[in-house]
Amino acid sequence: MTQKTACTKAIILVAGFGTRRLPITKSIEKCMIPVGNRPTIDYLVQDCIRAGITDIIFVVGEDFEQLKHYYGRNISLEEHLIGKGKQAQLQEIRDLSKGARFHYVIQDSYQPYGTSIPVHLARDFVKEGERFVVAYGDNILYRKDGTSELTDFLESSTHLETPSAMLTVRVPHEETVNYGVLAHEEADGVKLYREIVEKPATPEEAPSDLINPGIFVFESGILPFVSANAETVMEGEHYITDAINDYVAAGNNIALLDAKGEYLDCGTVEGWLHANNYILG
Fold first, then answer.
1. Is 253 buried (19+), middle (13-18) or exposed (0-12) by CB count in 10 A?
2. With contact defined as beta carbons under 8 Å apart, do 64 and 106 qualify?
3. ∠ at Cα 259 (258, 262), nearest 5°?
4. Cα separation of 30 and 28, whole Å?
5. Which of 43, 44, 88, 277 could pair with 140 in a Cys bridge, judged by C-beta atoms 3.0 to 4.6 Å apart?
6. Alpha helix ranges (H) inside 103-171
7. How far apart (Å, rounded) are the C-alpha atoms in residues 142 and 36?
8. 183-202 pLDDT tens trace
9. pLDDT per residue as tens digits for the range 94-103
10. 89 φ, ψ to 5°?
11. What domains appear along the chain, each with residue ranges and CATH number?
């Protein structure tokens, strides 16, 4: 097996309008909607930092400012906390961005829409031969014991023969019609991605009970496939899963690794309520 480099970069997709969460997302960025006392995105960001990610690249929309303010300095607030002797709160807000550099890439309204576009726009942050994480910003993989899902995922992926991997979670079979469902085969005890079936018409048409919660680790070789997809004129959205399919068709394998944390989809009101109830107990 070729020696794999440490993974220290993550591209996080947060440029969507959040139409499933309207009207609240008209004024609050979807990734900033709170779960407990933290924005949804922060569960992913803190897990990235625990996993050794030192560069976090957010791909944001034109009018997205709340995310930048959350991870930026607020000198007035810090001075207020110092004056009041609230050292614990001061340390808490300073620790939000400790351990990583934050970068922001604008996905403007002139760009096509879809999940391959943000990765294409952030491609220059990735050097040839590097591994990097891609993650959607509205899902949480939560472990009540405080351990890191991403740390285990990256560690497990390092020991595989495949250059890339994606996390998977198992959903009740009757709910597979709501997701993109993964078809796979097994080789030497490792599940390998073959295709994704988007929202099968019936549970019987689903190739498995496995879905991807939007967390991947790729090697830089996937970027030409992402860019080819992003630069192709087409009707509808540019899906990163189409680029993944082309990458696999070209002879590259992607391993499927089971997540250990609880999958919390905060993209719907029902999912968000469940996430709050689960995390707050």
1. middle
2. no
3. 140
4. 6
5. 43
6. 116-121, 149-158
7. 13
8. 999 988 899 999 998 889 99
9. 999 899 999 9
10. -65, -40
11. 9-280 (3.90.550.10)
